[in-house]
Description:
Strand order of the largest sheet: 1-7-6-4-5
Bound molecules: oxa(dethia)-CoA
CATH architecture of the largest domain: 3-Layer(aba) Sandwich
Shape: globular
Order of helices and strands: EEHHEHEHEHEHEEEEEEHEHHHEE
Low-confidence stretches: none
Helix content: 25-40%
Number of domains: 2
Largest sheet: 5 strands, mixed
CATH superfamily of the largest domain: Thiolase/Chalcone synthase
Mean pLDDT: 97
Number of strands: 15
Amino acid sequence: MALVGCGSGLPAASISNDQLSERVDTNDDWIRSRTGIGSRRVAGADESITSLGLKAAQAALDHAGWQASDVDLVLLATSSPDDLFGSAPRIQGALGAIHAVAFDLTAACSGFLFALVTAGQYIRSGTVRRALVIGADQLSRWVDWDDRRTCVLFGDGAAALAVEACPAADDGLVGFRLRSDGRRGDSLTLNQIEQRTPLVQGLDAQVGGFTPIRMNGQEVFKFAVREVPAVLRELLEGTGTDAADLDWLLLHQANQRILDAVADRFGIPHERVLSNLVHYGNTSAATIPLMLDEAVRDGRVQPGHLLGCSGFGAGLSWGAALLRWRGPAA
Length: 330
Ligand code: UT7
C-alpha cells in the first residue's frame, strides 16, 4: 500500500484558551503548560462529520490526482458520526465515489491507525486498489462544557489519506502493531445514558443517547507514556528499524508532555517530533492525518520519509505503525 495523497477539513471557528476561560473555570497558563494546547476548532451550525470528512476526502483525492470513480473503499474512523448507522456512505455519496464500499470504524483516538491498517489489508489481499481513509471527530458534541478536566482538551476536525496498491517492495505500511484492553476501558468513556422507557409488562426499553465524555486523565496519561513506547519499541525491533532511522515521530496529538516523554524514551530530538496541538488540541481520530497533511504541505515530510506513528485512547486501544510517505505521482 502506497500513501499517495492527503487532505484536511477543519471547522472555521477557532476558540482560544482565553475564550474558553470565559465559559469554564480554567486559564491559558494551565492549559498550555499541562497540555501544549493554545486553541481548538469547533464545528459551527453548518459543519458536521459528513461535511468536514467530505472536505478532507476531496482534498486527499485531488492531491493524489484521482477521480472519485477510481476509489474502491471509503473508510471513516470516527467515534462521533452524524448518524449511528454510519457517516461514511454519506461522504462516499457526496464525493461521487460510486464504485466504493463505505463504512465507519470506531476505535476512538486510535481509530485512524486502525482504519489505515484495515485498508492496508484490503489492498494487500487484492480486493481493493484505491482507498480513502478518513479520520474525523466532532467531540464538541460530547464534551461536558462545564468539566474543565476534559473540555479544554478536545477539538473538531477531519483529515484523510489516499492509499493505493503498489509492489510489495514499495509498501508504505512498513509494519504495524495494534492493541486493545477493554479491562481498562472505564478510564475514558462516552457511554450510553441509563434511561429506560416502559414498553410492555415486565420489560423496559433502553432510551438512546450518550453521557458526556468522562476521563481519568492521570490514568490515561500513565497508560500512554507506558504503552506507546512499548508498542513502538516492539515494532521497531520487529522490523529491524533503528529509532535514528525515523525521519519523524508522529503521535496522536493528545498532550505535548506525552509527545516529549515518548521522544525522550527513544532519544529522538524534539525537532523531529511533529506537533500541531497548539492550534487544534486533540481531534481524536483526526490528529494523525491532520498532522501528516500539514507537514506534507509545508514540505517537512518528503517522499521517501519514514514516520514512526502511534495512536492511543479510549477502549483502551493503542497501536503503532511505520509509514513511508510516497506522495502523488510526479
Ligand atoms: O485522546 C485520548 C487520550 N487522552 C489523553 O492522552 C489525556 C491524558 N491525560 C492528560 O493529558 C492529563 O492528565 C490532563 C491534561 C488531562 C490533566 O493534566 P494533569 O497534570 O494530570 O492534571 P490533574 O488532572 O492531576 O489535575 C491537576 C490540578 C487539579 O487541581 P487540584 O485537585 O490539584 O487542586 C485539577 O482540578 O489541575 C486542576 N485542573 C485544571 N485547572 C485549570 C484540571 N483541569 C484544569 C483546567 N484548568 N482545565
